[in-house]
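OP here, attaching both records as promised.
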Amino acid sequence: MTTTPTRRELLVWSAGAGALAGAALVGVLTTPGQLADAGLASFILETIPAPARQLLNDLARPLLPYLLAPVAALLFLRGVVRRQWRPCLAAAAALPAIPLSIWLRDDVVPRPDLGVPGYGWNTFPSTHATVGFVVLVAVVLLWPGRPGRLGVALAVAAGLAIAVGNVAWYAHRPVDVLGSFGIVVAPVLLTLGLTFGGQTRPPRGTQVQKVTKGMT
């Protein structure tokens, strides 16, 4: 079992992320989707204490994006200088999601009044969440070396803060954030899949087995 995803896995995951964005759109356009979305939003608002929700809102809108954006820019420049084209291309592939999210929200996606309580206007997808996911993905892709457990935990925590924070103080619905995640991650995974060089890290123990075999 290798530790690096294959081209096929990356392309399948990209399709899955695109499907996630499509499924989130169902939460805007259909009665069952709006009901499920409203239920999840209520769960978040009623479960997390108000001070924690306010903190998450402040982190997601816009503290984390502001903090991560210059880090992502510096890492991108470092990657270009070192000719690390694959992660740089993948990070750049996420950028069109920002104007796409604005276009979808303002000009494309309607929000029909289906009798479900909530906002009377369209907020799909969340531009704040899109920007947050774009810079977070860039930092994860371009960070030097392989992240340890702490790095993975911090990246997951930042992603959750961006996702929940955009819902926690009534700015967006959960489907808005899911849509943002999908339109950011899908092109990134697609780019990684299309630029896959076929080199994978050998399974654990392979090097040990080779050394042991050479000593016998």
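Record two, same layout:
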Amino acid sequence: MTYHVPPQATSTPSRQRLPATALAFDGRGLLCVTLLLRLRAAIADAPAGTLVHVRATDPAAPLDLPAWCHFTGHHYLGPVDEDTYALRTAADPAPTAPDAPWRRPAQP
């Protein structure tokens, strides 16, 4: 589930408020590939520089999220709390294959 967070909205689990230009993505219960595919779709239309808080319970998330950010050009900011991670969207992220967040799209 993805939702936009207005400035006065509910705080994150760490009790910090998200700024007005923030997105929260709830990926709890999703495993790596599904988490990244849904995250990619959720932030596709977000303006460059949008702060994104990703909630994830997949044990691989602390490794997968920074690696995916590096691969796509988004900026991984690190953990916020036990199951929440922060990133900032890039102006021109590198595309990935529709069904594989770790591969570049096939060239025609």
